[in-house]
Amino acid sequence: MNNKTLLQIVKDFGNPIYIYDADTIASQYKRLTKAFGKVKQLRVNYAVKALSNISILKLFNSLGSGLDTVSIQEVRLGLKAGFKPEDIIYTPNGVSLEEIEAVTKLGVQINIDNLSILEQFGTKHPNVPVCIRINPHVMAGGNTNISVGHIDSKFGISIHQIPLLLRIVENTKMNINGIHMHTGSDILDIDVFLYASEILFETAKNFKDLEFIDFGSGFKVPYRAGDIETNIEELGQKLSKRFNEFCTEYGRDLTLAFEPGKFLVSEAGLFLAKVNAVKQTTSTVFAQIDSGFNHLIRPMLYGSQHEIINISNPKGRERFYSVVGYICETDTFANNRRINEINEGDILCFKNAGAYCYSMASNYNSRYRPAEVLIYKSKPQLIRKRETFEDILNNQVEITI
Hints:
Layout: H1 3-13, E1 17-21, H2 22-35, E2 42-47, H3 54-63, E3 66-69, H4 72-80, E4 88-90, H5 97-104, E5 109-112, H6 115-124, E6 130-135, E7 157-158, H7 162-172, E8 176-180, H8 190-204, E9 212-214, H9 232-250, E10 255-258, H10 262-265, E11 269-280, E12 285-289, H11 298-302, E13 308-310, E14 318-324, E15 332-340, E16 347-350, E17 371-376, E18 379-384, H12 389-393
């Protein structure tokens, strides 16, 4: 997407705005499937929580992807987008047994990570196939908020509780057809991932009727030029070889499953916002934009870095700016960042805005959430309207005071 195209999209659809490129999404999907091309049965389940617009889900359906969901609402979105129930896995955490039972009626694959819920569900529904989420106690991920496989994590059933897990399965006679793990996001060390995989293989030996093993995801993408990323090709070569060996040991071919989100959509997304004001203080030059962490919370929540470029003045001399938003508290996108000279009215482009950006947006300060555009077959198409004041009031109920 060149600057001229982006500026035209802003002109046509307004700002701030999220823009996604379908070709980039398709390229990342094909890159992942190619990396694991030596596995007989591969399943890529796109993590809906990364970017849940129904048009994006329909795109993944057309690519042959499955879906990884964490709520009944995401399951329903997937079904609405045309996915078959058998192509959706539901991996909640801390939800009620009632929600799990409601999802079961929709026919999707259930994944349970709690011994209490497992026993209750198995007692009531012993014939429903269930996947079990294991906590391998392996620390992985670029931030404590997104590292979910360590010993203090709320996610998964501890490997140290396997004897109790097996007792529950034996007592309920429930059908365990898959096992799963997810260690965290922004994984760089392939050896750590492979180590955790060995724990999962060892656990799998306890179950005789498995159909698949789900290795989660968490692959790191580059956030700026020269940034390091997960070597997906190396991981594909090493894990595929080990997985095929395990299938031989197990006695039949299983499906290798992944649930990538960020890897598939992060680099496909851009976020564009206009500079409202340039403010010089005694020590800092602030570029104040028409957005805030209500639209893109990751820098404030995770300390994540998004490369920011001035597409209105790409050849201007570089200066140092702190890019901040309009939310009425600390609201910083970047500190002391080198950016081509910024003037009021310029459009700034945030890269890697496809994953966990719009999906975490809010109406904080009663601000509207932005529009979304998908560039599909070289044509920009609006896939979500910009909110209006009526949307803010939509579900509020005024009482007489």
